[in-house]
Specification:
Length: 723
């Protein structure tokens, strides 16, 4: 699998703001570990499964006549409005008196397995919900597999292994396996040669794909290698939109690379998704390992950079996280009902508090993803998701991650790379992220170091691996380090990440010569490790390998302002502006590299006269709320001799300030006097005779709409607890 695309844009990506989210942020900030339980509001309903029954229990605080309703798993949610959850068709499956404190229903309704549903406790007749929908979370009564599936193996592994003998020679104890569900399922052919029956329906399989998967997993098992599956849904331009594997929000014609979201929106999509996962878990967790073993599945790839790696179209982050959370939950139900130790992983790349994309409909922060996934999981009944993380260096073409400035030792780090890797298990070690009192497993399933063509490039690549390995070994919460990749891929954007070079042939899998990293990798985890790694110490700036992990973190710095209610973004609309007497107007990211930088409009003035940038804007009427113009004025260069900043609304000056070099002021201006009107908002800069270095920048200029109590809209340090 290819590493993340290289992006240069950043974005300020706060979480959706509401009283509920503000409370969650407060809880995380002050370490109140039980707040997420309070927010779950399940009505005390717990759901268990046995071979023949679905069993319910609830708290004694519920009184009177009650019922339990069943809701389908398919989200049917194509917008960001959470209220659509309530419109899903529900069916009453049990009714009685709350004093019973428990109930049961048959597990199967004909061939339908009621395990795959969510249940809600309601008042009599389903008139009033007494909590949020809950999923089966107790599988203890089922006869499940209990083998280790390779757990406890050495952390050392390789992705995209092209030669089994070479993998054995390297001492690789772990490998990955990309599993494309569309490549396995044959849902179009009639009378397929390979098939299985699931919930009474015949599901077709592609024999060649099954045989190849068997071959890879059996070979890994014979070589005593633990296998982590990467579950993918590759959609291409010729994939029919009518396919139940295609999410309704995914347009095959626009998918840039192939990996796309699983179809969790329709009943048919959910059926095929859970069917293939159930088949994988049954076939590859057998005690006799007849077809090989899978230890778990990574669900999709790098979901927070969804445009490229989990394509769902241009959509709000809340939709992506909701649909992805549904995919996680179904995978948990389908696998934990079969094997006790089968792992389901969330897939994230190295952007943590920042995003790989400046477009919020194409990507968002990893911290936003992981916090919202956990909130949704807790609300529906917590389950043991794990994390598959990709801590590439901040610049994929520079192996020296120990110089990564955007990866500080803070919970609000813009990125998490190997430089600050210890932040990740520390963050997940907080009470609100635990599962049954235990820290969630972390697998490093795709990351590597580029070998530059400069002199010493191979040595630097090898040194990067040595330091990364030492850090991983010192972090018990990390279960695996699958180095990406075995051999360079000629179509990987110019990256040379391999332990071996490509052989230069037309064969994309051509295996070339060993690089210096090959022998260093081979020595990792052996008695020869320290002697083989000694060369790396002066390169990475160390004298020994002691204390490679820091336990002391800096306090968080980043504060965000709301973006959920932005009704006009001047940066996004900059091409529509009327420009007068300005040298140039460009989008520029501002702020220190070790913080999440913010977008700004750099408006460079001419030597004489006022530089003006004018926008036509519709101000909402009074009934919609308070309209506010928010921005920071920044003179963004140390050598500037000063400049004047001003803002006018329909010719009326509402802001004016002379700034010195590197000076910054914040402003919040009410636009209520112009409610319901179409106005001209003009941003004005004056060079004050000397335009040299006058990098006059309007930081995050926007109009927001505030409704009701603005206490929930003020700047808040969200979901960034103090270490």
């Amino acid at each position: 699998m290819m590493p993340p695309l290289l992006f240069t844009g950043f974005k300020n990506s706060p979480f959706p703001l509401s009283l509920k989210h503000a409370l969650l942020a407060f809880c995380l900030l002050f370490g109140v570990g039980q707040c997420t339980d309070l927010l779950a509001a399940s009505g005390g309903l717990r759901v268990a499964v046995t071979t023949d029954e679905i069993q319910f229990r609830w708290d004694s605080g519920v009184h009177g006549s009650v019922c339990i309703t069943r809701l389908p798993l398919a989200t049917n949610q194509l917008t960001a409005d959470p209220a659509e959850t309530e419109s899903l068709k529900s069916v009453v499956v049990w009714q009685g008196e709350a004093s019973q404190l428990s109930a049961m229903i048959p597990r199967f309704e004909g061939s339908l397995d009621r395990l795959f549903a969510k249940y809600r406790l309601c008042s009599e007749g389903g008139k009033e919900a007494l909590g949020t929908p809950q999923y089966v979370t107790d599988f203890s009564a089922l006869p499940r597999g209990k083998s280790t599936l390779g757990a406890g193996a050495s952390k050392k592994g390789i992705t995209c292994l092209l030669d089994e003998a070479d993998g054995v020679a390297l001492g690789s104890a772990q490998v990955n396996e990309n599993i494309d569900i569309g490549g396995l399922l044959d849902i179009q052919s009639v009378g397929t040669k390979a098939q299985f029956i699931y919930e009474g329906r015949v599901i077709g399989l592609r024999p060649a794909s099954v045989a190849l998967l068997d071959k890879h997993l059996k070979a890994a098992h014979q070589n005593r290698q633990r296998v982590t599956g990467i579950l993918l849904n590759n959609v291409h331009a010729n994939t029919p939109t009518s396919s139940p594997l295609v999410h309704p929000l995914t347009d095959p014609a626009r998918v840039p690379l192939g990996p796309s979201a699983f179809n969790t929106a329709t009943e048919e999509g959910i059926f095929y998704y859970r069917a293939i996962i159930h088949w994988l878990a049954e076939r590859y967790t057998r005690e006799d390992a007849a077809f090989g073993l899978l230890s778990g599945l990574v669900i999709g790839n790098e979901m927070q950079s969804h445009w490229s790696w989990y394509h769902l179209g241009n959509v709000d982050p809340k939709i992506v996280i909701r649909e992805y959370s549904a995919a996680l939950r179904v995978a948990d139900l389908a696998t934990r009902s079969i094997h006790e130790h089968f792992s389901i992983y969330v897939s994230l790349e190295h952007h943590w508090l920042m995003s790989a994309s400046e477009d919020p409909t194409k990507g968002f922060s990893g911290l936003e993803a992981i916090s919202e996934i956990q909130r949704i999981a807790t609300e529906g009944g917590n389950f043991p998701w794990a994390l598959a993380f990709h801590p590439y260096p901040q610049n994929l073409f520079k192996a020296e991650f120990w110089k990564d400035r955007s990866a500080p030792l803070r919970f609000d780090a813009p990125r998490i790379t190997f430089h600050n890797l210890e932040v990740l298990p520390a963050f997940l070690g907080q009470p609100e992220f635990l599962f049954e009192g235990k820290v969630r497993a972390i697998a490093l399933t795709e990351q590597g170091f580029h070998c530059s063509e400069d002199e010493g490039g191979e040595t630097q690549q090898a040194a990067a691996f040595a330091l990364a390995w030492k850090k991983v070994q010192a972090l018990p919460g990390i279960e695996s380090f699958l180095y990406h990749r075995h051999v360079d891929h000629p179509h990987e954007g110019g990256l040379h990440l391999g332990l071996r070079a490509h052989d230069g042939s037309s064969n994309v899998n051509g295996i070339g010569r060993k690089r210096a990293i090959w022998s260093v990798f081979q020595s990792a985890g052996t008695a020869h490790e320290d002697s083989a790694f000694a060369f790396a110490l002066p390169i990475v700036g160390r004298t020994d390998w002691d204390n490679v992990i820091s336990s002391k973190f800096d306090p968080p710095r980043t504060r965000f302002h709301e973006t959920e209610n932005v009704i006009f973004d001047f940066i996004q609309k900059r091409d529509s502006a009327l420009k007068e007497n300005v040298q140039n107007v460009v989008r520029k990211m501002v702020g220190p590299e070790d913080e999440v930088q913010r977008p700004g409009l750099l408006q460079h003035p001419m030597p004489k006269g006022l530089g003006r940038l004018s926008f036509k804007v519709e101000i909402p009427p009074e009934k919609e709320g308070d309209s506010l113009l928010l921005f920071e004025a920044l003179l963004n260069h140390e050598k500037s001799t000063g400049a004047r900043f001003a803002v006018e609304v329909d010719g009326k000056e509402v802001f004016a300030k002379n700034l010195k070099a590197e000076e910054k002021v914040s402003a919040e201006i009410s636009l209520n006097p112009w409610r319901g009107q179409r106005v001209t908002i003009c941003w004005i800069v004056d060079a004050l005779k000397d335009p040299g270095y006058d990098w006059s920048t309007w930081v995050a200029p926007r109009i927001v709409l505030r409704k009701g109590d603005r206490s929930t809209d003020v700047a808040i340090l969200r979901s960034i607890p103090r270490p």
